[in-house]
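Thread: quick sanity check before group meeting

JM: Hey all, I'm pulling together slides for Thursday and realized we never actually wrote out the predicted structure for the chain we discussed last week. Dropping the sequence here so it's in one place. If anyone has concerns about the input, flag it before I start.
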Amino acid sequence: MAEGVIFLSLPSSRKNRAALECLLFVGGRPVSPVALARTLKISEREVEELVRELQELYEREGHGLQIRKVAGGYQMCTRPEYAAYIEELLKPELPSLSRAALETLAIIAYRQPITKAEIERLRGVKVDGVLANLLSRGLVKEVGRKDTPGRPILYGTTPLFLEHFGLESLKELPPLEEVASTGEQ
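JM (edit): ok, ran it. Output follows.
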């Protein structure tokens, strides 16, 4: 019997769960529940149930992969405890973010929307090069113009920022008091 015939004879829920797993595997980025439901021709509630089933299966069987909700969608990713193996295999192609870039990115994340002049006032230095770097990496973007003389550009973070830092939304950023206290240690 051909594999396709065996697959087609699977119960509908198992077939949908397997298809969902494939979609998350090839998606590479977070895939919204709406897109998953549309592709599988099932409801978003059914997508949520299938995701929970896969999460439980992966946890129960000790898989190296997990499914997380990130940036408003679901993404298949590796478990943190295996990061050292992955880092060894995939040496970073791009240099990591500099301290200046991380500081600028933090200011944008917490104060967005924010202008370049406001960032420079908070950092105390020019940020032209750092801001260009963050824009080119897709971590920040222009989100509009401030309604003041000169109509300066406003900057904010992108979904790639959320993905890069493993956040579902900006609400998951630690409170500023917590960030300030950890920086003093």
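AS: nice. Strands lie at 65-70, 73-78, 114-115, 140-145, 153-157. The domain at 3-88 is CATH 1.10.10.10 (Arc Repressor Mutant, subunit A).
JM: adding both to the slides.
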